[in-house]
Amino acid sequence: MESRIPVKETTFPLVFAAKNRSNDIRLNSSSGGAFEALASKIIERGGVVYGCAFDDELKAVHIRCETIEDCRQCMGSKYSQSYLGTTIATIIQDVRDGRLVLFTGTPCQVDAVNKVCSKGVLTVDIVCHGVPSPLLFKTHVRFLESKIGAPVVEYEHRPKNKGWGHHERFRTKGGASFQDTRLSESWKRLFYDNRMLRPSCYACPYASEKRISDITIADYWGIEKTELGAFKDGLGVSLVMANSHQGLELLGEADMELRSSTLQDALPGNPMLTRPSKYVGDRNAVWVYLYENGYQAMLRAFHFYPSALRRFGMRGIRKMRQLLKG
């Protein structure tokens, strides 16, 4: 199939707003379903795809995908560092076997793949906010289980049941679902506080407009403030950057609805295209408190797991007073 986008452009990156043509796929993606569309094209060509999925213990791990069903395990955000294991060695073998390979991951992971596989691999990176450690996320899941009294068997960082945004949800073995509660929102609070990311993330050399991948994908946050505002809907829109001729060709073949955009329009909603994540306050204090007092105490002390009264807030208190006055 020929690309629908001219591939003679020489100035990269080329920036697009993108939607998967399947609304069902977008519903189960964090943003516009770009990963699934790119992965589908590689599988259709007889290639293999590497992406990040949760394993049975809710650990973020990279898996090798031979079918689109395998690839769909990798849809959705994973807000902790993924475990590569033998992924790079397996990619090398796939390349030697003449297989077309698509690798998706954080920019630092993509750079690792690039350094050992200069040919035969198409790479897709994300606009990365930074990652907490897998041990920290495992500790978080155990905390949830201790509060609920049941194993957590499913975790979604960005489900779409409440629209395109960030409303974390988890389910227990007994079928109970938790969303928009103090428990379910605590990891999001910790993540965006930025003080519990990997130390290297604060000096990330890849947080730049100059990408090292063939394609970059992200949420197109702030699209409503651009000329493409009408393209936004509740199912989400991806920001997609073609960074090479190979990336542009694959993007043109993928089953997505594309709108040309500009880096200038994309930057306000994706500041990690210009700088690494930053934090306010004493980072060491959070970690010292964790090691000395435990995970739950740390969450409470730094308001990642606020008290019921704090979550209710002054607005709720005023409303309650009005109701009591009749």
UniProtKB/TrEMBL annotation:
One matching Pfam family: FrhB_FdhB_N
Annotated ranges, domain Coenzyme F420 hydrogenase/dehydrogenase beta subunit C-terminal: 100-255
Stretches assigned to the Coenzyme F420 hydrogenase/dehydrogenase beta subunit N-terminal domain: 15-83
InterPro entries: Co_F420_Hydgase/DH_bsu_N (IPR007516), FrhB_FdhB_C (IPR007525), Polyferredoxin-like_ET (IPR052977)
Alphabetical list of PANTHER family matching this protein: POLYFERREDOXIN PROTEIN FWDF (PTHR43193:SF2), PTHR43193
Protein name listed in UniProt: Coenzyme F420 hydrogenase
